[in-house]
Amino acid sequence: MNTPILTTGRLRLLPFSNDDFALLQDLHSDPEVNRYLSPGPAIMDPEEVRRRLANYVGDHRGTGISKWKLETIDGTFIGRAGFSFNREPEGYELGYSLKRSAWGHGYASEIAKALVGWFFETLPYDHLLAYAVAEHEASQQVMRKAGLHFWQELNQHGLPCRFYRITRQQYLQSVGLSAAG
Q1: Are strands 67-72 and 149-156 parallel, antiparallel or unpaired?
Q2: Is 168 exposed, middle or buried (0-12, 13-18, 19+ CB in 10 A)?
Q3: Which residues pair with 52 in a beta bridge?
Q4: How far apart are CA 104 and CA 114, in angstroms?
Q5: Are residues 100 and 44 in contact, defined by beta-carbon separation less than 8 angstroms?
Q6: How many contiguous H segments (helices) and E segments (strands) does the chain have?
Q7: DSSP assignment of 33-51, as one string?
Q8: Contact 96/103 with Cβ under 8 angstroms?
Q9: Judging by beta carbons within 10 Å of its beta carbon (0-12, 13-18, 19+), is residue 115 exposed, middle or buried?
């Protein structure tokens, strides 16, 4: 078994492998899971799933920063979560996508909060971004629970999106530390 990237009380993140196509395809075969993702409320094309999986595997191997396989502690696959680099606005973006059967259990908030901590405790970057389509209030609530603050509204993939942001200083203040030490 792979060594987990991160473990919480109920969840763990593991690197994806090329053998995980069926898991990722199953996640993105639900139009409701894809509703606020590209391609929208449709089943994701298998070639797109393969492309994303190759990116996740390659990013992890190349930089150690990626979207990872999200499982419950007992090993049940429930989605993906982690980071990708965003060019405009520039910075790492926190992202998550969970199977519909995992919705409503607090898993997204739990893993998002843990990922914010992992990001600032592991990496040298000054800020972290996250965004959601403007009408996707549930995802924005997850971002707020994870400590991110509304930053700006921008179009992304032709849709109005609300961007949230947290700086290293804001994170350190939230855990009772100062930027100086």
Answers
A1: unpaired
A2: middle
A3: none
A4: 18
A5: no
A6: 6, 8
A7: HHTTSTT-SSPPPHHHHHH
A8: no
A9: buried
Task: Please say whether the dihedral angle defined by the alpha carbons of residues 52, 59, 22 and 37, taken in this order, is positive or negative.
Answer: negative
26 to 6, 61, 154: CA distances (angstroms): 23, 24, 30
Q: What is the mean pLDDT of each run of 10 residues along the chain (181 residues)?
A: 90 98 95 79 91 97 97 97 94 96 97 98 97 94 97 90 97 81 52
CA 172 to chain centre: 21
How many residues appear in the chain?
181
Do 53 and 81 meet the contact criterion of CB atoms below 8 Å apart?
Answer: no
Q: What pLDDT score does 23 carry?
A: 97
